[in-house]
Amino acid sequence: MLSAIRNRFSRLVAPLRERLQGTPLLVYQLGILGAVVIEQWVGKDFARTLAFRKIPKLFGIVDIFEPFSNLDFSGILGPFFPSPSMTVSNPVSQSAGAIGDLIQTFVNALFYQGRRDPGFFSVLIRVVVYDLVIYVLPTLIIVLLLRGVITRFLRTLPRWANIGIHLVLFYLIIVGWGGDGGTRELVLIFMGINIMLSVSLNLVNGYMGEFSVGHAGFMAVGAYVSSVITMVLFADTRVFGPPLLPPEWGLPFGFIIALIAGGIAAAIAGLLVAFPSFRTRGDYLAIVTLAVNFIVQGVINNLEVVGGPRGLNGVPLWTNLNWTLLFTLISLGLIYNLVNSTFGKGIIAVREDEIAAELMGVNTRRVKLVAFLVSSFIAGMAGGLFAHQLAYVNPGVFGILKSTEVLVMVYLGGMGSISGSVIAAVIFTILIEALRPLAVLKWVVVPLILILLMIYRPQGLFGFRELNLNLGMSRSASRKKIVTSEASDAITGD
Amino acid sequence: MPLLEISHLTHYFGGLRAVSDFNLSLEHGELIGLIGPNGAGKTTIFNLVTGAYKASEGSIKLEGQELVGRSPHEINSMGISRTFQTIRLWGQMTVLDNVRVAHYHSIRYGLMDVFLQLPRYQKQEREIEEHSRELLRLFKLEHYAYEPAMNLPYGVQRRVEILRAMGGRPKLLLLDEPAAGMNPNEIGELMDFIHWIRDEFDLTIWLIEHQMRLVMNICERIKVLDFGETIAEGVPEEIQNNPRVIEAYLGEQGEVA
Fold it and tell me: What is the distance in angstroms between the Cα of A142 and the nearest Cα belonging to chain B?
């Protein structure tokens, strides 16, 4: 049935798709920018017209799940494991009653739960209408109007101007849509941090073919080192006392230096994995990475200077959208340049056949060292941004759960694909945000996605290939066409 | 001075003596063969020369420089390149990238040059790419440039492996059973091909092969190995009529009847 719906849908949009074939990215960017402007202008009023109290959060994805926030699963198993003070006479009937209530709440959540709390379907329909009117239609109209002009205009631009104009528009969209200082900005910041984490882990797991499961450990090192630096030097805190340097030096230089220092400290921690990787690989190295994650957590837990298990409070709130954007783009640039160099191809050769790589002249130790160092360096910087966003870090945050989150992003996006990791980090961040009303159920949904992914699309969204962005450059200005590998299809017979 | 000089090379796997007192002197431009029954220790010798195994005893000298104790990538950078008995291309990488990586030892740029795309990086990458494309053109494989190596037909993969070995501009090329799995027609082409690369690239070639037609036709000199020991050496005609070689391959006379 699903495929029937998909077929009908694709037939419906086929003429549109044909019209839009070969439209450069810039045109879409302009369209989205138009939609962002329209939302600023009439978004609030239109949301009120649709009986929303405010503009739907994250395209309404959050609002859709809001009705389910009343679901309570604790009654099902609770009666079987009562607390000592409670006596439960008949756990089976109590549990059955709880299941009945749960079904009742669920049905209510779907349809109607009172005048102030609309049901799921009501929200869904209004969200779709809002998104269509505010985002999709304006974008499409602008795209169809400007298509020809912009395509011709782009051909006249040199390469640097082309990339520059794309970046400027990208920045305008991000700041225009998300620079509200509220939920959107927060989500975008976490998105940036997640992109840094997943792309850096992909360098090791995807490009080099090792299986690192302790990425949060490097993040923790970066978070703590950069936090301690900024707190000692630029902030008046209870833990470290008055600042050593005038606080106004903190931004921008102090922050940049602290983040880079955090990255370097994380890279040094990365040596803990890099050196064992000379001797062992595969499952055994995975256990080493796991151990490193626990070692880092254990060390921080026992360091009273930084608060031990209580955590570190009073980190300056310096991370904002601009900083995140800057460091995310730098990280992407570093990794992109690395994996496209002959040196970086050596990393991939190690994945494909390490012995052949060594015999064909690749210094496999150096290549592994660089991959681990760069990967943990970027994770450390991400940790620094993370700490300066929350103002509070504690070792519990950087546990195996965080490492698993990063792994989910890498495998969702696909091994050996930068664009895959970026898209997966974006999807994952939004998903986590959207599932927030479901509380603990989130940790059922996310692993379930991973299981389904491994069954139906083991190579991830973009396994071993990159998204080809149409920058609309003329043939002479563009470099040689990047031909994406079809290898993943050959494996899966897709 | 000989290009490659191996003296008293001996190697043990635990208590098993896989190669014993192997000697060889290889002059520049030679094309020689190493044959012997299965398990005679031929591939072990290649692995010793390329540094995959560290020799138990003896010495291997390339243009007077000792190779024993050096790591495989170092030995590769000194001018020895090889192919493998079973194809070991980097399957998911394109043919062009396979050849590019073979230039690894000629890289002189640092990590910062990569990150910032400095001129030094761009210049060297351009040279590597040009040389790779030149090789692809010479090997008439340019239309496979963007194809992942694993998708190619078997015979083409064999050629790509030799192509990749040429990426590092070797002085000595070791071919480990280049004709394995080929039909008589393909073997004929391969013989011309091996002659051609030797002349085109001014190479010295040392090959292991079971296909007697190929060995007897193209090798100028042949060494025969059995149970790790050299049992015969000479030009093809001598080898063909050598009783010890016949014995090693067919068993002792009289035993069969």
Answer: 36
In sequence order, which residues have a C-beta less than 8 Å from that of residue B8 and are 6 or more positions away?
A: B21, B22, B23, B57, B58, B59
Q: Using the 3D structure, point to which of A156, A173, A199 is the last residue of a domain.
A: A156
Instruction: Say if residue A217's pLDDT is above 60.
Output: yes
pLDDT by residue (tens digit) across A343-373?
999 999 999 999 999 999 999 999 999 999 9
Whole-angstrom distance, CA of residue B187 vs CA of residue B184: 5
Total of domains in chain A: 2
Residue B235, token pair as written in the block: 């030009």
Q: What is the pLDDT of residues A454-485, one digit of tens each?
A: 888 888 888 777 877 778 776 554 444 443 33
Q: Which of A81-95, A232-246, A266-280, B216-230 has the lowest mean pLDDT?
A: A81-95
Q: Does A329 touch chain B (CB under 8 A)?
A: no
Residues A101, A190: one domain?
no
Q: Could you tell me if residue A485 is inside a domain?
A: no
Do A348 and B81 lie within an 8 Å CB cutoff? no
Minimal-distance CA residue of chain A relative to B90: A352
My answer on whether A149 and A189 are in the same domain is no
**What is the rounded CA–CA span in Å between residue A264 and residue A261?**
5
Kindly state whether residues A126 and A201 are assigned to the same domain. Answer: no
- The answer on A229 and A133 residing in a single domain is no
Residues A354, A447: one domain?
Answer: yes
Residue B109 touches chain A, beta carbons under 8 Å: yes
Is residue A339 scored above 90 in pLDDT?
A: yes
Closest CA to A205 of A286, A293, A294, A278: A286
Domain assignment of residue A266, yes or no? yes
Q: How confident is residue A491, by pLDDT bands cut at 50, 70 and 90?
A: very low
Q: pLDDT band for position A57 (50/70/90)?
A: confident
Q: Which residues of B touch A486 (CB under 8 A)?
A: 148, 151
- Using a CB-CB distance cutoff of 8 angstroms, which residues of chain B are in contact with residue A464? 92
Domain boundary among A121, A156, A191: A156
On whether any CB of chain A is under 8 Å from the CB of B151, the answer is yes
Assigned domain for A463 exists: no
Kindly state whether B117 is in contact with chain A, defined as any CB-CB distance less than 8 angstroms.
yes
Does A321 score more than 70 pLDDT? Answer: yes
> Do A201 and A146 reside in the same domain of the chain?
no
User: How many inter-chain contacts (A to B, CB under 8 Å) are there?
Assistant: 111
Same domain, A115 and A236: no
SS (H, E, C) chain B: CCCEEEEEEEEEECCEEEEEEEEEEECCCCEEEEECCCCCCHHHHHHHHCCCCCCCEEEEEECCEECCCCCHHHHHHHCEEECCCCCCCCCCCEHHHHHHHCCHHHCCCCHHHHHHCCHHHHHHHHHHHHHHHHHHHHCCCHHHCCCEHHHCCHHHHHHHHHHHHHHCCCCEEEEECCCCCCCHHHHHHHHHHHHHHHHHHCCEEEEECCCHHHHHHHCCEEEEEECCEEEEEECHHHHHHCHHHHHHHHCCCCCCC
The amino acid at residue A317 is: L
Is B108 within 8 Å of chain A by CB? no
- Whether A366 and A415 map to the same domain: the answer is yes
Structural domain range at position A389: 181-456
Q: Low-confidence residues of chain B, pLDDT below 50?
A: 255-257
Q: What is the CATH number of the domain that holds A417?
A: 1.10.3470
In this complex, do A356 and B71 lie within 8 Å of one another by their Cβ atoms? no
How close does chain A come to B191, measured CA to CA in Å? 24
Residue A484 counted as domain residue:
no
Which among B102, B114, B128 has CB closest to A360?
Answer: B102
